[in-house]
Amino acid sequence: MTIKNNDTATPTSFITSRKHARPLPAHTLAMLASLALPAVAHAGADVTPDLTIPSVQVTGANQPQQASANEKFTAPLLDTPKSVTVVPAEIIAQTGATSLTDALRTVPGITIGAAEGGNPVGDNMFIRGYNAQTDTYVDGIRDAGSQSREIFAVEQIEVVKGPNSALGGRASAGGGVNLISKTAQAYDFNRASIGIGTDKYRRLTGDFNRNIGSDSAFRLNVMAHENDVPGRAVVGGKRYGVAPTVTFGLSGPTRVTIGVYHLTTHEIPDTGIPFNNPLTTGPDVAKNGNGRPFDVDRSTFYGLANRDFRDTKSDIVNIDLRHQLAGGIVLRNVTRYGKSNNDYVWTQPDDSKGNTVKYGTVWRRANTRVTETRTATNVTSISGELQTAGIKHTYNAGIEFDRETTDRSNYVFTPGTNNPLTGTFTCPTSGSTTLYNCTTLVDPNPYDPWVYTRTVSPALTHVSTKTKAAYAFDTIEFDRQWQLNLGARHDDFKSVLNTLTTATRAAVDSRFWSLQSGLVYKPAENGSIYLAYATSATPPGNDGGDGLDALTVAVQNLQPQRSRNVELGTKWDVMPGGRLSLTAAVFRSTMNNARVTAPDGTTQNVGRKAVKGAELGFSGKLSSQWSVFGGYTFLDATVADNGYLNVGTTAKPVYVVSPYNGNRFPATPKHSATLWTTYAVTKDFSAGLGVNTMSRVYGNVNNNKWAPGYTRVDAMASYALNQDVSLQLNVQNLTDKFYFDRVSSPHYAGVGPGRSATLAANVKF
């Protein structure tokens, strides 16, 4: 018996589901109403109280809980020569995840980066040591714009590790994350979840599916959520979302799926704690610490409650048309329009002038952003199977047209955010005489009466990016034991930046190929051994105007950074019925033309980076009661050639070979491991335990600012009152570990949330 990925699960493997709705008993409705009313009143959202996490559909087949929804994979995951981790719906539900970053906590080899001046607040992932901020996809199509993504309308999450350019175009060398959306199904169901918890946690979700004709269906997912961040003063927020989809032609040769997605968030973003090592010269160097964050209370917040905010909005319309021809050939066309907004004022605890060491103060640096990103994408593909000379081909080929436009500005404050006593961001003192722009390192007051007028700066930056691409993938089966996987993509990438007030213009026009290949040997039907090669290309302006990899005059004429990855791996489905998937891989990734400062002070493609690593993964069931999910990743990530460094002045530069050659990548732990396991003690009661651990992480290429490694433990218990209602208790960070979970800025480290507890009533009706 195993839980399939097409339904979100309660943790109990014995629970069964029906394909037709039925009313709940009166006493159950009364109990749910008593739970829901205070939560609804507190949430303040126009959402009906019978909303919830989806229930579980169980079948009798003992198969591994892993199947990809990416049609560009032309072989089952068992025979795909890539490292791919699928986080299924039941793992998302069991762990109590409510955001993409929550869900990715179960995948080793991924770290979350901290925002900075040029790096926006949002989902900043690092995969295998490389920044994958722009490598997030929804149903295989790039999801541009800086966002913090929710999972209420997500069926499962797929993490592809290694160069991803052949699959998605311009990309980093580390990999990408693909979110699979919930779509209308051929049977009726109603599911809802009502959650309450510590730190003002309130969450309502609903998932409703209805047949609306002989061959059509409608599905609606809704969500309202609010909470404070455990252990952090002031930080928290609320959000709500709605995602309807309708499908026509569920069982016919022609199928049309139309989906709409909307998410709105309001929050006060976190500030983190500065590193204790900001000075390199001068008499105060002796006061430096060892480079880890300052030893202050976990709740320390350096922002201003009446200044800081973050408002985001995301809207997507998706039309998916597919038609099956004779012989199993499928024609597909997907058209998508999306718009995202990310507006914020966020306080960075700046240490760049040594205030923390010299004076015990912090400058409240106001990082601001006002952005709108619009995307329009059309993809046409053909897929199927054919036989040539007794050799089987499973193929997928297509063309893609994409346009992204980003308008970015920032906020201007009156009075300004510098210290009026010095005219700069140097803070020998703090308090009212500095207009509260300077605060104390220890015990700052987030409710200081900071008074201001805020306006949007006229310094607007407009970036327009166009991509035309063609791709093809083929799995060639020579016999039952040997397969060859081939893939190629050609991109025509153009991006233009215009800054209106300064009349600055930069443009890149780049064409590049991305390749992947893998030879697969199957010593048995339930296993494979593969040797794979893949490339990635990261052109200047890769972020489309809303990220750290921005287009500038200095880099506009450079070639794309190119990475190559060689990987040797094996995959096995073991245990009776192949219900447990095991994977292992060793790999080496190199970038021989990284963008760095050259001896003449210009930026050139002359740097080199290298990552050597190994991965282990497991997913499935050790028995009908015992499920496991997780893995281990080892990363030896080295900045082999960091170019040159100016040790002189701006007026009289003196460039020397970078002293940071041989250092580790920032935001890249050498060791990381995850485990999530559940055990069904009885047919009604299940318990779960999660462990996440990683070693030290550096905040800069200098390797003199870092956050210590940590181990975090989570726990879960679930009890089924009957076949329609279950209760789930999640305790996150069970030991209340004080740790840092966002490290990539050279100024500060993000604080991980403290201990929290949530209780959810999950209902089917």
TrEMBL record:
Give the CDD domains listed for this entry.
Answer: ligand_gated_channel (cd01347)
Its subcellular locations are: Cell outer membrane
Instruction: Recite the UniProt keywords alphabetically.
Output: Cell outer membrane, Ion transport, Iron, Iron transport, Membrane, Receptor, Signal, TonB box, Transmembrane, Transmembrane beta strand, Transport
Specify whether Cell inner membrane is a keyword of the entry: no
Gene3D superfamilies according to UniProt:
TonB-dependent receptor, beta-barrel domain, TonB-dependent receptor, plug domain
Q: Where is this motif: TonB C-terminal box?
A: 748-765
Q: Does the keyword Membrane apply?
A: yes
The residues covered by the TonB-dependent receptor-like beta-barrel domain are 277-734
Membrane topology field: Multi-pass membrane protein
Chief localisation class? membrane
Highest taxon, organism lineage = Bacteria
Which InterPro entries does the protein's record reference? Beta-barrel_TonB, Beta-barrel_TonB_sf, Plug_dom, Plug_dom_sf, TonB-dep_rcpt-like, TonB_rcpt_CS, TonB_sidphr_rcpt
Q: Which residues form the signal peptide?
A: 1-43
Any Pfam family hit: Plug
Q: Which residues form the TonB-dependent receptor plug domain?
A: 77-175
NCBIfam families recorded: TonB-siderophor (TIGR01783)
**Family stated for the protein in its record:** Belongs to the TonB-dependent receptor family.
What is the protein's name according to its record?
A: TonB-dependent siderophore receptor
Supply the source organism for this entry. Telluria antibiotica
Upper lineage ranks? Bacteria, Pseudomonadati, Pseudomonadota, Betaproteobacteria, Burkholderiales
